[in-house]
Amino acid sequence: MEKLEGRISKLGKKIKIEKIKASSGNADLIDIIPFELLFTISLNGNAISTISCSPASLIELTVGYLVNNGYIKNYSDIELLKICRQDIGKIISRNDLSSRIEVTATIDKDKIRHSDSLRFISLECGSIDDFIFEKGLKKIKSNLTVASDVVLTLNRETLNQQRYKKEFGGLHSAALFNKDGNLLNLAEDIGRHNCIDKITGYMLIKRLPPEDKIIFTTGRLGIDVIYKICRMQIPIIVTNSSVTFSAAALAKKINLTVIGYARGGRFNIYSWPRRILK
């Protein structure tokens, strides 16, 4: 597939602000805040979603979104992925916050499945087992084991490699690691789900096998994120934040190791602890 997008150099935008301090009064300053792009994905000519995102790694975001939400099975299903003739840099420079970018992915029609896209995930009155059956989730089959010392390094390594969050904040991050804790890729975005889609899109494009990988995220782990990780068959996900009860319950059913509050020399294992060597 032809690569049609370059990397975006900055995710933030300067803005004039008035800063007020009780101790020293008012001051006019220049601040940097995250830039938000409305990004429309079209599949076979039909707009399927408009995503609020940071303007970087848009091809990875698109591929991850389409696969994680069940529109396609794999990256190889895509025949053409083209970013429309609108320059992202110019959009940012002219402060056009309402601008949209459209991406069209042309897929082999015989391979398109009825989408089980999770625009909104809810267990409603059903059980976790009902949810697994309805979404066709498969149990994760991986013999991966990881030393607890490796898990303890993931938060520090992710924070050290964050570029834009250090500059102006307001961003989530997700990082891809191998079993030895070596960083393979990192994504920053205003949306935690976008970070996951960008990482999984990167894996799909690079054809990286999932069974020996770890994803670290700075966002809360809910059932929607667990769904995406299960579709990718990644055996371990770690966050420095919280884990919801439904996410932990689903993870136990699908053999996914979920770790929360991984920071400050500690972490909690919520499901499948056998993969973590104490």
Automatic annotation (TrEMBL):
Coiled coil ranges (UniProt) are none
Answer whether the UniProt record assigns the keyword Iron-sulfur to this protein: no
Give one GO molecular function term: sulfurtransferase activity
Q: Which GO terms describe its biological process?
A: Mo-molybdopterin cofactor biosynthetic process
A Pfam family annotated for this chain is FdhD-NarQ
Thylakoid as UniProt keyword = no
* InterPro entries named among the record's database cross-references: Cytidine_deaminase-like, FdhD
Q: Which UniProt keywords apply?
A: Cytoplasm, Molybdenum cofactor biosynthesis
- The protein's name is Formate dehydrogenase family accessory protein FdhD
The species this protein was found in: marine sediment metagenome
